[in-house]
Amino acid sequence: MALKVAIVGLPNVGKSTLFNALTKTAAAQAANYPFCTIEPNTGDVAVPEPRLDVLAGIAGSKEVIPSRITFVDIAGLVRGASKGEGLGNQFLANIRDCDAVAFVARCFVDDDITHVENRIDPISDLEIIETELMLADLESLEKRVVNVEKKAKGGDKEAQTTLRLINLALTPLRAGKPARVVQVDKEDEKAWHMLQLLTSLPALYVANVDEGSADKGNELSDLVAKRAAADNAKAVVISAKIDSELAVLDAAEQAEFLESMGLEEPGLNRLIREAYALLGLQTYFTVGPKEARAWTIPIGATGPQAAGVIHTDFEKGFIRAETIAYADFVALNGEQGAKEAGKMRAEGKGYVVKDGDVMHFLFSS
To answer: In the chain, what are the helix, strand and coil shares in percent, each to the nearest 5?
Structure first.
């Protein structure tokens, strides 16, 4: 699955520093002035998955291939962006192609880094960005509604569905709430996604704190966590500065640095895990002498759907899946041990894949 998460926020809240840390590059210029990012920067990031290395070690895999997630660094938005202020709504359009939005809120005080609003208030930061996205959605829907109404009155069933969903979205947006508060029926999900609403995307609030608050957060990040809980969103505390420094270290140096900071893992690991949880995703594995590989699938995916992530032909011709639970694969030292212990299962088309399953697919061509 190709997954994209947009990183959005006001200028100078640490977006580009976070992006640089995520991609381990300096592709996004981090500088102390607004709009230093003049086009969206995109980077693919390996998803941290310690289980994959364990499986590869047992199987003697020559190559280890993790799942990947794409982050898009969107230029700093400002109040009035939906009306063309700052770099304008050209950057709002870049968010529409993403699966989720990570709102970065500044939760640190640093007199050397100016704030575009001349104050440190993470909740206000979040509200400004959310408001601009809501205004952009309102403008988009109100431009479309007249034409859709004409088609709907003419008996076009697709237009009737679209009109119903537009009105469903307009109700909260006109009340100052994001479209993600709308509960959409399963049969309407495809048409709902076709509306391409910025505020219908799942939201993750990223509290960017100072180095000394990286482990437990601070009063400002606590405010962000409360806001996320109220909005039924996810929140994560991260120090973009620490993670940008970690990004250039090798594994041993990282471990030493983390220990000195009293941290168990990089904040980026938590960020990626929360993004996965937000999108309702899980991982299964294929393991052999050639490679050990992690695959991303939605929670609730069946065997054929999991096979289809590898290749559409696997899903079309699915016969069965030979499946071993991760814990059994490890405890019994690999496929052969699991097979001998009766822990390899033959699962059919209705099998719902579990997180961590080690799978081998049989299919007809």
So the answer is: 45, 20, 35
